[in-house]
Specification:
Elements (H helix, E strand, L loop, with lengths): L1 H5 L16 H10 L3 E7 L16 E7 L6 E8 L5 E5 L9 E12 L2
Antiparallel strand pairs: 1-5, 2-3, 2-5, 3-4
């Protein structure tokens, strides 16, 4: 999902899950090297961004449960005007997206 959003070849994006520092620290370090930051947002029970979102139209990484087993999986989503998420790309070859509940959305933004 990260490679898809950043338009990078898959081999240029490390497997954050296997990183010894933990996936989030590895992901943040990867982004920091590219002048970007990571913001993870816990989603509501309905799978939407909480409160009023100013991120309409933005792409993000969305975490839910894999349809291929009881483990996490991430896909690319886009924020709708109402803060709900439209799942637009699954990087897995089966492209079967996510099973609910959706857990969090992560935004990769340029450093301010």
């Amino acid at each position: 999902a990260v490679a898809s959003i950043l338009n990078l070849p898959l081999q240029e994006v490390p497997n954050f899950i296997s990183a010894s520092v933990g996936y989030q620290a590895a992901w943040e370090g990867f982004l920091n090297e590219r002048g970007m930051t990571l913001e993870k947002v816990v989603l509501s029970e309905e799978g939407s961004l909480p409160g009023t979102s100013s991120r309409s139209g933005q792409v993000c990484v969305v975490r839910g449960t894999s349809p291929r087993g009881d483990h996490g999986h991430v896909v690319v989503g886009m924020v709708r005007e109402d803060g709900s998420l439209n799942l637009i790309h699954d990087p897995h070859p089966e492209a079967s997206m996510l099973q609910p509940p959706l857990v969090w959305a992560a935004f990769m933004d340029p450093t301010k």
